[in-house]
Amino acid sequence: MKFTKKISAALLASVALATLAAPVLAADIAVIAGSANDAFFNRIKKGVDDATLVIEANGGSVNYLTTQNYDNFGPDLVQLINTAVSQGVDGIAIPVWIAESQVPALKAAAEQGIKIMMYNSGADVKDDISGINYFGSDEFVAGEAGGKYLAEQGAKKILCHIHVPGAVNLETRCDGVVAGAEAAGAEVVRLPTPASIDSDVTGTSEALKAELLKDPSIDGIITLGAWSADAAAVAIQQSGRPVKLGNFDLSPSVLDRIKGGTQNMVIDQQPYAQSFLAATMLAAYIDFGIDLPTDPILTGPGIVDATNIDAALAGVEAGAR
Amino acid sequence: MGNLSFSSLIRRPEAGAFLGMVFVFLFFSLFGGSTFTSFAGAASWLNVAANLGIIAIPIGFLMIAGELDISIGSMVPASSMAIGILSGYWELPIAVGIILTLLFGATVGLINGLLVLRTGVPSLIVTMGTLFAVTGITLFLSIYITNTTAVSLSAPEWARAVFGSFYFNSYQVIIAWWLGLTGLYVFFLHYSPWGNWLLAMGGDKESARNAGIPTEKLTVALFVLSSTSAAFVGLCQTILFNSAQVSSGMTFIFNTIISVVIGGVLLTGGFGSVIGIFFGTLTFAMVNQGIYFTDFDRNLSSFIIGVMLLIAVLMNNTFRKMAVSYTGPKSKKRG
What we know:
The complex is a heterodimer of chains A (about 325) and B (about 325). Chain A is α/β, with parallel strands linked by helices. Chain A has eleven helices and twelve strands. Chain A has a six-stranded parallel sheet, sandwiched between helices. In chain A, strands 7-6-8-9-10-12 form a six-stranded mixed sheet, sandwiched between helices. Chain B is an all-alpha fold and about 325 residues long. Chain B has a single domain (about 15-325), classed as ABC transporter involved in vitamin B12 uptake, BtuC (Orthogonal Bundle). In chain B, the strands form two sheets. In chain B, strands 1-4 form a two-stranded antiparallel ribbon. Chain B has a two-stranded antiparallel ribbon with strand order 2-3. At the A-B interface, strand 7, helix 7, helix 8 and helix 9 of A face helix 3, helix 6, strand 1, helix 11 and helix 12 of B. Chain B: This is Xylose transport system permease protein XylH. Chain B: One of its GO terms (molecular function) is transmembrane transporter activity. Chain B: It comes from Donghicola tyrosinivorans.
């Protein structure tokens, strides 16, 4: 009978729908991150990918949203927050990089009952946006460790290169470098470079070299990204001076240099742990009401130098570092 | 060419671009002190100009012909990763890596050119499509193959000597490539029939085709040239810095177009010169790098870049108008 067939089909369909809709309580979350072109965000993505396995096993879902680039960073992030809200997610895991742009949007999201978990950056605005917890390195503490390290290695005047002037986490890193270095008796010069040479290794390298030529007393450089450390390494080699080099975030060439002795150290905030923990703990908060008493939870800084380079290289092989 | 007088020199189309450059040079010589003009300091902006200039001239050709190629922004990192993966990760001979990388650049250029011709969609949009497509493929493949977005490469000595090393301690070898290619392009645009074809195309494509100019072949060739040039710069950077990463070239889009326009190429096409673009690129590089020699507050860098570039372009434009309307010294009336 056609009619009964139709009825049974309709029944089957509704059963299927009900099964799909059954874990309605399970968390649907969005994780917002920067451009996937950035090596750093691939560690973040690996953390999110692994967290997704856990969250999906509990019947939830994860939507990973990234900005295309950093040209229009603040507005782009707000756009992603609004996208997540309009998709009706239960929670958002997000770093706050451009506080002025993001805080109002996240506040509005929180007022609609969306839970906010923070990672990577912006711990100081956590209360403003009713954030649950923060997973990340404290940028200031990390910078402090880096500044102290180079100063203790003998650097007297350190250049702190900022490749995206105005970005909260980068400025705070340099603040930390200043504090750490000054406490250890060294001076710090900040160098913000304009967007016209962002991600441009040649332009940045020449800019750093120009600074080294202009000021012969600079004997240390800290860059806030891995690519800019490549640029700095060439600038130092060109200057012909023994300038100490440290940077934030790992990359193969950074590790090669540390192994080869042409770079002193790299500060790792272990991004894999940040996104993995932020995503899983956000879902656990929504699904099971689990809230950790330690707040914030620091995932860094971990300093990689000649003493522990081999262990770090093993982590890189695995794609998680 | 017989009467190489001051008035004929100053009436050349690139004279305005030259004066803009002189202004910028004097400005930074004044505020940048002696390091800006010193041997090592000059390398700083020449290196940047060379990397930019190798792509800027082909982009200038496209703009003269009334087209645009923004996909170079993804070609620089894509080719950088290509050679990094081929010769770094897979450890193929560097020559194989270089040839395949350049072929890859040519292929993307071919796709751009054919798409522009066959679809009739403006080249800005077509190359925007390939810009994103190539970026995505690069990211996907580099994660798929290497599980990371950055690879390291240590090239053999001969490859470094030819493509990516420093001479006189601070001059990148790519400067020689830039000068050589500029010479070649000057011949192409100003002394070969193809140059006239190109200018005619930019002026009026329809009439150019009616006049028997192979506009389609020329268009495709120009896209192949710009894309291959971007691939060349990408591979040179990788060899020099021993490292390639997925994101590195987006600034090239904006910076090449700016250099070309400072060099006096009209945004509407049909007018421009290789030497003008050459000066435009140098101007841009000086402005961009010059600030690091000065004592200005580094937070003002972008502001200074903006103002200086605007002044350079205004000087060029004003001067070009004056040059075009200049009639030379009035000949003495006889009788």
